[in-house]
Amino acid sequence: MNVTKITDHAQAAKDRLLFQYKGKVNIEALLDSLGGQQIQDLEDILFDINSRLDIENSEGVQLDNIGIIVGQPRSGQDDITYRLFLRAKAGRNVSEGDIERVLSVWKIITGGTVVQLFENYPAEVELSSDVSVPDALASDAFALMQDVVSAGVRVVSSIISPENAFGFEGSVGTLGYDTIISTGTNTSTGAFKLIDSGANFTGDGVAIDNEVVNTDEDLTAKVTNVDSAIQLTLDADIFSSTPLDYDVINGGGGGYSKVQAA
Questions:
Q1: What is the pLDDT of residues 27-83, one digit of tens each?
Q2: For residue 20, is pLDDT > 90?
Q3: Which residues contact 257 (CB under 8 A, 6 or more apart)?
Q4: What strands, in cross-sheet order, belong to the sheet with 211-214?
Q5: How many domains does the chain have?
């Protein structure tokens, strides 16, 4: 709720005088002594106190004090980021776990314009946004969102889709959550490797940090190195046999990145 400060209590009192008393020095002094200026002083003090609890206009120690009130530690965050988590925590404090409230808090944290919640049977949810949460804040975001959802429900991952926030699964290049830039079947195995003798990873534009999905076993990993046109090094060993189908997904500038809960 926006509060507008009144700055003219004393003058407003004088303006209400009958015409014959206006401009009379003694009468106006009497009004000031009876409360006109005192009321203004009280307004100034109360407004200052109120502004100290205003997340948007506070900074530094003032934000830390608000964090103590709402129960959200700073955790090394700068003021801009901390404000996001303070607003989200305030929303969490009044949340009853309904989907609307969960989405509103998630939207605050990410600053996204498109957010969604997907329910996985029996008691898990995935959250999506068109704006990514920085890696350094991901664990804090998950912990906060875990408190927002209903008791017994687990937040399992967040999906970030900078472009094509809505689409149809399986549409290569225009997928709702993914932009698939390479797809195929592995032909041999190696530790932390994706090997496909028929692939052209370099020609497809596969790059470090792209997402690789073992679609047969529903496993994911990140590309840590493009070894050659037919081989990628991954941060997880998700291809232990052949043949397994895979998709390589552009996780930036139009693709998705999926962050698993700890």
A1: 777 776 666 667 777 777 776 666 556 776 777 888 888 888 888 888 788 887 788
A2: no
A3: 132, 159, 160, 211, 251
A4: 180-185, 245-249, 211-214, 219-228, 231-234, 193-195
A5: 3
**Count of C-beta atoms within a 10 Å radius of residue 207:** 15
Tell me which H or E stretch contains 231: strand 231-234
- Boundary-marking domain end, from 160, 194, 209: 160
Q: Contact 113/168 with Cβ under 8 angstroms?
A: no
pTM of the model: 0.40
Would you say residue 175 lies in a domain? Answer: no
Give a yes or no: residue 95 inside a domain: yes
Residues 156 and 232 in one domain: no
Expressed in angstroms, the distance from the first to the final Cα of the chain is 36
Residue 58 has phi, psi (to 5 degrees) of: -95, 160
65 shares a domain with 155: yes
User: Does 86 share its domain with 106?
Assistant: yes
Same-domain status, 196 and 130: no
Helices marked H in 5-118: 9-15, 25-31, 37-51, 61-70, 79-93, 99-110
Give the containing element (helix H, strand E) for 213: strand 211-214
DSSP one-letter code for 262:
-
Instruction: Give the model confidence (pLDDT) of 192-244 as tens digits.
Output: 999 999 999 988 888 888 889 898 888 889 999 999 999 999 999 999 999 99
Quote the domain boundaries for residue 31: 9-51
Q: For residues 32 and 17, is the Cβ–Cβ distance under 8 A?
A: no
pLDDT in tens, 150-166: 666 666 655 544 444 43
